[in-house]
Amino acid sequence: MGLPSGEAKRAVVETMFDRIAPTYDRTNRIISLGLDRRWRRRAVAALHAAPGARVLDVGCGTGDFCRELARHGIDGVGVDRAAGMLAAARVDSPLVRADAEHLPFPDASFDGVVTGFTLRNVVDLDAMLRDCARLLVPGGRFVALETAVPERLAWRVGNAVWFRGAVPVLGRLLAGDADAYRYLPRSTAYLPPTAVLTGRLAAAGLADVRHDTMTGGSVQLLVGTRP
Prior knowledge:
By secondary structure, the protein is α/β, with parallel strands linked by helices. It is built from 9 helices and 7 strands; from the N terminus they run αααβαβαββαβαααββ.
């Protein structure tokens, strides 16, 4: 069965995240083997945001990034399309329900924009990237965490066994929803190759674009700066 596209994808993704929101945090900790906290710390460090800076978390889900930002004295604002995820969030940061491709904020209104595992879930990636770049002050950074397919064979095999084999089983046991946790690993296929992806950040108006990987190449970190 193929992955959904267009408006069908938008509806499927929103409904899925609404459905898994109540158990999302616990399940995410387990399927990431607790490494998701380390990934977020590295992403926040890549923002180079000082205490008191204002940072937008796009696709904030239940607020993990907002909580990490708050630990650094950074004022986070979360935005997500899925009402269920926002309802499950336990954060002090302001939360806004909106589409990642049409963010309801003025130009140059944030010192940084961060997003975690959202790029593959939007319908129009270029529209999202342009809107994120638009919201940055000059010198502000856009930082994205995303899944990736490892280049080394041993890591690639291990990644496939875990995320395509074990994760759906854990999703069924922990969240009662194997379908959602079968979709999430498969959705990596939405992402373009690294060179294309970094080129699209540049085309959206971001400069000094750089790319790095973590956990054997299973997770990628993308950084770009508004000139």
